[in-house]
Amino acid sequence: MSPRKPPFRLATPSRRQLLAGAAALSAAAFLPQRALADFPTAQVNTTGLAVTDADVTVGILHSVTGTMAISETGSVEAEKLAIEQINAQGGVLGRKVKFIQEDGASDWPTFAEKAKKLLVNDKVASVMGCWTSASRKAVLPVFEQYNGMLYYPTFYEGLEASKNVIYTGQEATQQIIAGLNWVQKEKNAKTFYLLGSDYIWPRTSNKIARKHIENFLKLKVVGEEYFPLGHTQFNSVINKMKLTKPDVIYAIIVGGSNVAFYKQLKAAGVDLTKQTLMTISVTEDEILGIGGENIVGGYACMKYFESLDNTNNKSFVAAFKKMWGDNIVIGDVTQAAYLGPWLWKLTVEKAGSFDIDKVSGASPGVEFKGAPEGYVRIHENHHLWSKTRVGRARADGQYDLIYETADLMEPDPFPKGYQ
Amino acid sequence: MFGEYSLGELGSILVMQGFAGLILFSVFLLMALGLAIIFGQMGVINMAHGEFMILGAYMTYLCSHLFEAYLPSLYGGYFFAAMIIAFLAAGALGLLVEWALVRRLYARPLDTLLATWGLSLIMQQAFRSTFGAREVGVELPQWMMGSLNVTGSIEVQINGLFVMGLTLLITAAVAVLLFKSKWGLQVRAVVANRTMSGAVGIDTRRIDRLTFGLGCGIAGVAGSAFTMIGSTGPTAGQLYIVDTFLVVVFGGAQSLLGTVASALSISQSQSALEFFLTGSMAKVLTLLMVIGLLMLRPQGLFVLKVRR
Amino acid sequence: MAATRTDSRSLELIGFALIALLIMVVLPLMLDIFRLNLVGKYLTYAFVAVGLVLCWGHTGILSLGQGVFFGLGGYCMAAFLKLEASSVENTRIQSTPGIPDFMDWNQLTELPFFWVPFKSLPFALIAVVAVPAIAAFILGAAMFKRRVGGVYFAIITQALASVLTILIIGRQGYTGGINGITDLRTLLGWDIRTDNAKYILYFVCCFLLLGIMLLARFVLASKLGRILVATRDQEDRVRFSGYDVANFKIFVFCLASAMAAIGGAMFALQVGFMSPSFVGIVPSIEMVIFCAVGGRHSLVGAVVGTLVVNWGKTLFSESFPELWLFAMGGLFIAVVLAFPRGLAGLVTDQLIPRLPHWRGWTHRQPSPAPAE
């Protein structure tokens, strides 16, 4: 356990809620439904946002075209589902939620432009959006300059905290540390081999992993390597791993490289049911391309798996498949995107106002008990307290939950001792 | 870095690393072969080459599903059928493209680059509309997975052997075609002097079309084989193009031997560098070395002396 | 050229005046600042397209790596802006205040030596043009002196674009990595993010673009321009006439690269960041598309082509995202196959001869474009 253990424990409030399907998500379970009359528009909206007596407008900003469309589609779907459910429950402060969807087109300047359009022209009350770090970095100055709220769903490298952003995915230490502790304890691991695609997220994450392995667990890193995005040849590094015989392969490879890596690993006779491999970059979505048979036995460390066995998640998965089709799989980021609209609704109701500054200020401490991953709460630094889980890949492309932390992990985007 | 390992371990790693280099060589050669014969014959680079490979990969994907549904007993052998279908599909599309597009541009090789790039965009979107934007997983028959234990510590990948065998076979077939068949004779004549070949009655147009079709067909087979080691998605073809183009250009036009030598030297240097450096730096250094060498030997490794 | 010399010159002048009118008057009046800023971004690509008209259209050097030079120019500008934005008080939460945030995240504790000169605006402005020009000179000298050209040159520049992208992404402590250099705020204390500043930057961009178009026009109209065209069509004959062809090619390649770099710098200023996604293979080829669609021989055409393709891209990807790649690919093939002289060729060869007034004015009907 890290020295920064969360100081408190929680009962499991989520169990107490009965969520029998999307529409039935009962309003009474959260907050008493407040009447519109209690919240006149002039009072809840003092900064000219797109709020009327009848509705409130939010923005959805993801790539639906270009190379990132594959990844971001799930987030869009989850956000639309959440908005529909919120409306079925009576909306936010008695107002129906409408959304304007903009396409970032996998192009970072486009993200910045569309963010500006949403904030300046459409005056949306909040934006659910972005996926890659590059797109978030591109829109961040826009959100700070024009004072908007962004709910960002992806697990990412940390090193950022803004009053204008709520990070609903895990930052790197949340995702990494608990998993490493687990693998040390359960697999008696002594040596690690770190791999990654060559860009900021894998590099920062591996740096945190290395510091934790060397300074806190007092174990050994026997190799660390990066490959250009899109690299397809991994035989040399597989040989290096055969030479150094690490107890754990720690892989943060993304995109098309992922597929090549796991296929070649399997072909080289590395059996993941015997060789421990841990990844933080392969969700159920990625397994579709890799093929379950190529990664079966590998461990993934993140906060959500589609197979989680709790009532919240069951109704979430059912509602998601009802809305978007049975063939869809739900990965970690999709679930985090689903949290965005809900957290915003709960924050607005806590603040009693749509004003950005009030929402931003009221965010810390907001709890969402209906989250599919279980209870989450917003931290002072605008990231989420959440549990970290280890899953083991099955041949059918789903994960079996092997371990989850007893406590919520504290988000720590600027980790001391890990930089 | 080697102090702590026994001689035996180092020996087996050396062998396996040599084998990894050979696999990379086979992959490069297989990628480049189809492109090289087109480039050699017509002096044009087919920028949609990667997409033709992915077409082959998708054919393999379809085949595996068809076999699973209708011929489950023959599933173990579907891969061979898939390769033939991939060859035919990519080759047929190649013939069509040559007829509709490329033959109009022979006088303008640079424009061929652009037109085939446009083609690659269209093919990418067609894949996306047909098969979806996500990568598809191509399942392999059981016997193709895993590795052979040669000795206790030396393991050899079966699919690596398969790719090597396939590359050898196709290279040999192309060589035989080129140097023993009538078509090959005509190709060589056209390469040496197009006008004169036309004058002695060789139908240069037909030769061009066949060559283009054959090149694309080989790309299809390569793509089919790469489902074993890589990803199959609408834009996966883009992952291969830089390597492929460099192998071909470095090898020099009009020389099969040059392509082989170029694939060998690039793959060996990359594989060795990857072992001693990290993957990223190895890639950059290899590319820079090739660019540097091309500046010294602008026409590639091997040049056929021809009268222009 | 089809029409007589005077005619084609007056046609170009008219085109130039029209484009100036369009970007300086019509668009600013018609569009709000949001859309105008978009147009400003497109116009920065037009710098590259104008450069390509020089080196591809008139000299026959196809570079598939112009994104490299666009990127170098943009990164030089962004480096200056980032250093200004990273003043000690702006960055006091960092473990090393006063260096750009991404360096701090990568545990750099002091500014790398090659970043230091970028604290000075004059140096940065010179570097915007000089760094890409020098890079182009080295590449061009190595290639053209050894008579490498055509497809070889295209593929090598493409590989270079790939190398530079890998390097920028991989050396993130020095370059900002895949996220690029973001959050650029002020230029000598002047906030470049306000609407007012965006208007001013837009007009600066227009002036610069018109300026380099005139420069390009001047080069093409000079004797040098005619040697370039001669080189494209019959390189050996030019060489036999006693000209050192390589030097001319190197010059025009450097010039085109410097133009691309100015575009990159304006991009960084107007968009507020720079990232490796404008350096790689795909953006480089897209810039060639802009030029080809507009007409590879026409300076005005290149600018129009850039605007039209980008406008189409925005329109299509908003309304029919599925169809965009089909449309783009189809357009590309159509232009290459049927209208190798692009939109400009359509106007000069098809449209104008059909206008009775023009026919009288030009005295004779232009013959079809010569085959290339």
Commentary on this structure:
The complex is a heterotrimer of chains A (419), B (308) and C (372). Chain A has 419 residues and is an alpha/beta fold. Chain A contains 13 helices and 15 strands. Chain A has helices at 41-44, 69-88, 108-121, 133-146, 172-187, 200-216, 235-244, 256-267, 284-290, 292-295, 311-324, 332-351, 356-362; strands at residues 55-62, 96-103, 127-129, 150-152, 165-167, 191-197, 220-227, 248-252, 276-279, 299-302, 367-368, 376-378, 384-385, 389-393, 399-404. The radius of gyration of chain A is 21 Å and the shape is elongated. The two termini of chain A are 18 Å apart. In chain A, 62% of the residues are buried. Chain B has 308 residues and is mainly alpha-helical. Chain B has one domain. Chain B has a two-stranded antiparallel ribbon with strand order 1-2. In chain B, α1 runs antiparallel to α8 and α9 (238-251) packs parallel to α11 (279-296). The longest helix of chain B has 36 residues, at 7-42. Chain C has one domain (5-362). Chain C is 72% helix and 1% strand. In chain C, α1 (5-30) runs parallel beside α13 (299-319), α12 (281-294) runs parallel beside α15 and α13 (299-319) packs across α15 (342-354). Chain C has helices at residues 5-30, 33-58, 66-85, 101-105, 121-144, 150-170, 172-175, 195-221, 223-233, 235-240, 245-271, 281-294, 299-319, 324-338, 342-354, 356-362; strands spanning 186-187, 190-191. Chain C has a two-stranded antiparallel ribbon with strand order 1-2. In chain C, a hairpin with a 2-residue loop joins β1 and β2 (190-191). Chains A and B meet through α2, β7, α7, α8 and α9 of A and α1, α5, α9, α10 and α11 of B.
